Amino acid sequence: MKKRSMVMSLLLAASLSVPSIANAAPDQERGQETFRVYVESTGVSAKSTKQSLKKQYEPRWELSENGFSTEMNEKQFNALQKNKNIKVTKVQEVELETDVRASEYETMAGEYPTQQTPWGIKAIYNNPNQTTTSGGSGVNIAVLDTGVFTSHYDLVNTVEQCKDFTQATPLVNGACNDANGHGTHVAGSALADGGSDKAGIYGVAPDADLWAYKVLGDNGSGYSDDIAAAIRHAADQASATRTKTVINMSLGSAGQDSLITNAVNYAYSKGVLVVAAAGNSGPNQGSIGYPGALTNAIAVAALENRQQNGTYRVADFSSRGYAQTDGDYAIQQGDVEISAPGASIYSTWPGGGYNTISGTSMASPHVAGLAAKVWAANPSYSHTQLRSVLQNRAANNDILGGFGAGYGDDYASGFGFAKVN
Ligand SMILES: [Ca+2]
Ligand SMILES: [Ca+2]
Ligand SMILES: [Ca+2]
């Protein structure tokens, strides 16, 4: 395999540096271990209660008027629970929607990709001979994930923001290191641009701008308050810069989280389009995860590169919605909305190489990229108009293959496979 240039060895070396673990918890005594909580004061004196709580516990994120997240130990948590004017809850952990260990094929750093337009790109462009991609100019894609290897040849020119929401000091600007691989892979499917030499890999919308927001740790797990803060930050940045923004969340959990729900609703109210993985807990009914299951997030199911009943097939692992809503072409909580390629997806990887992995995590950025591409071409659209267009394109490409899939809107594939053409 041809080498891409000497620069790659530097990139590889950079990727091997061990990320520092910031501010490891100092509490070693039994019962003194701290954990993440959200504290909300209630009642007529909620404001002053909050002020005094903030003096005791250093706030991490203030995600509501009378609340904030912080760290405390079991003893402190139990004490606050007894106070009727304080609502204190443990912050939920959220995970990425892929098993990255299930990598099938890897191209080492420094080598050119074996495919410049992987099957998912050809499929969503509806052209088996597609050799490059285009579009997305002026639209931001905020990838809330494990970070991004922003030095990758095929991503470096797309990076506009790189921020870390997971460190002990919240919101580190200019840092978004990905030691996991998941976020780098997701970003590549959405907007890899082939690199300056145009010999690299292509995502759906290579002219879009990448906002790489690290919200999950290197083990692929993160806290819902960090994710909620990143969602709100993306929405505020979209407003401040007066630009169109698509949020991609290839992450989730079985249960609904109020911090993330409120943040998604906030972003949606600010005109941001929110796209999320449906989850990898299929194929049974009701296996869909959050935040995809929220009405204000587009839940994306994963397709395999395999035909059944004359269409692509929904992967068994792809989480399902509820059969009772089949055929209604309406979106309510718990519905799968759109399908996209998500099995055996080849994309960018930390260090500068490429890797093939599977999950609804891989399907979601195909839709985020398509959204950016359609929005850039139709800048007068509101985010709700854009969502309708994506739904219509999906309905025009009905999916019939896979457990639970059938004619029209179904709980496995949603409205269908939304394509470029
Ligand atoms: Ca949804
Ligand atoms: Ca339905
Ligand atoms: Ca169908």
From TrEMBL:
Active site, per annotation: 145, 182, 361
GO molecular function (one): serine-type endopeptidase activity
Residue stretches making up the Peptidase S8/S53 domain: 136-406
Gene3D superfamilies xref list: Peptidase S8/S53 domain
Highest taxon, organism lineage: Bacteria
GO BP, sorted A to Z: proteolysis
InterPro entries: Peptidase_S8/S53_dom, Peptidase_S8/S53_dom_sf, Peptidase_S8_Asp-AS, Peptidase_S8_His-AS, Peptidase_S8_Ser-AS, Peptidase_S8_subtilisin-like, Peptidase_S8_subtilisin-rel, Subtilisin_Carlsberg-like
Signal sequence segment: 1-24
Keywords: Hydrolase, Metal-binding, Protease, Serine protease, Signal
Keyword Plastid: no
Family: Belongs to the peptidase S8 family.
Name of the molecule in the record: Peptidase S8
Organism of provenance: Jeotgalibacillus salarius
